[in-house]
């Protein structure tokens, strides 16, 4: 799908990668177009490797050149092999000089919650203690040792799906009933105030806080997709600094960071999302998230002083 820009061929060429043309993709198409960019939209599954091509890739809409930048909105679901190949495409785009946001390494660091926890801990960022093991016996041993509620999360989950609060060994599913045979367990840090749970979503773009919201729910799962309410969030320097640091720790440049205060009042980073949605955030903050996303990526393109190389130039290099 191509949405031509109304101006000259010198317009920056942006490849919007998305698993579908949803509300967010439509907002991004409009935002990039409003800023003079030429947009092509493609599913990541449609980009292939072609070792006979000058740049080694077969990109729909780019027979003779490369895009100036890739804006990754969402990845298509698929088998392990398909997802591995698609991440390989993102890696390849970065290696041939295309700006990819977020790039494959950041996506890998965020989509695997155990990798996120590892990187947060390595960076000294406060986050609930987490474990990732592959047997129920080991998960039960950890649960008994910790003697506190823990949250069992799908390693590759999103939008609050598949979360389970584990209070005892009896709550642990069988290995065949887990997501991929992995037990990712995180200390439960939620606190109910007046019968409601809350956390904070901070959106970081280009190294700064672009928007924030408070999410409240009668239940302990506070994702908007699970029915939580999106509320305005006043500035909080501690949360904002942690969100920026967490985004840097995973190597991202556009991330949604979830935080809360535990029962002792300490700020904790719960998760980092490299492909965040923003419907509730836009409503709560009043910010045009797609416009921020587009503007920041185009500033990055302009800062490199490059335009996509032609196939002839690539072949000669």
TrEMBL record:
Can you tell which superkingdom this protein's organism belongs to?
Bacteria
Q: One GO MF term, please? A: ATP binding
Every copy of the ATP-grasp domain together lies at: 117-303
Kindly give the InterPro entries that the UniProt entry links to this protein.
ATP-grasp, ATP-grasp_RimK-type, Rp_bS6_RimK/Lys_biosynth_LsyX
Q: Which keywords are on file for this protein?
A: ATP-binding, Ligase, Metal-binding, Nucleotide-binding
Q: Can you name a GO cellular component term?
A: cytoplasm
NCBIfam families registered for this protein in UniProt? rimK_fam
The record's section on PANTHER family has: BETA-CITRYLGLUTAMATE SYNTHASE B-RELATED (PTHR21621:SF0), RIBOSOMAL PROTEIN S6 MODIFICATION PROTEIN (PTHR21621)
What's the name of the protein? RimK family alpha-L-glutamate ligase
According to its UniProt entry, this protein's organism is Aurantimonas endophytica
């Amino acid at each position: 799908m191509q949405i031509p820009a109304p101006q000259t061929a010198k317009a920056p060429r942006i490849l919007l990668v998305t698993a579908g043309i949803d509300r967010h993709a439509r907002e991004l198409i409009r935002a990039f177009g409003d800023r003079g960019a030429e947009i092509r939209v493609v599913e990541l599954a449609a980009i292939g490797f072609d070792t006979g091509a000058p740049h080694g890739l077969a990109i729909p809409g780019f027979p003779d050149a490369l895009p100036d930048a890739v804006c990754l909105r969402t990845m298509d679901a698929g088998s392990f092999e398909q997802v591995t190949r698609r991440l390989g495409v993102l890696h390849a785009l970065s290696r041939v000089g295309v700006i990819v946001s977020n790039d494959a390494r950041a996506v890998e660091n965020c989509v695997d919650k155990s990798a996120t926890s590892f990187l947060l801990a390595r960076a000294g960022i406060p986050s609930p203690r987490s474990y990732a093991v592959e047997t129920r016996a080991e998960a039960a041993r950890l649960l008994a040792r910790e003697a506190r509620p823990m949250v069992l999360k799908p390693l590759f989950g999103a939008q609050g799906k598949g979360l389970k609060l584990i209070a005892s060994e009896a709550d642990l599913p069988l290995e065949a009933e887990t997501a991929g045979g992995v037990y990712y367990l995180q200390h439960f840090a939620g606190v109910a105030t007046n019968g409601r749970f809350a956390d904070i979503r901070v959106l970081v773009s280009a190294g700064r806080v672009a928007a924030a919201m408070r999410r409240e729910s009668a239940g302990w799962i506070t994702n908007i997709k699970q029915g939580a309410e999106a509320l305005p969030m006043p500035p909080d320097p501690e949360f904002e600094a942690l969100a920026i640091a967490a985004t840097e720790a995973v190597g991202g440049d556009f991330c949604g960071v979830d935080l809360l205060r535990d029962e002792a009042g300490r700020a904790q980073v719960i998760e980092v999302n490299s492909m965040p949605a923003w419907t509730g955030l836009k409503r709560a903050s009043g910010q045009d998230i797609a416009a921020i996303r587009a503007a920041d990526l185009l500033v990055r393109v302009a800062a490199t002083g490059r335009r996509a190389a032609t196939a002839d130039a690539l072949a000669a290099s």
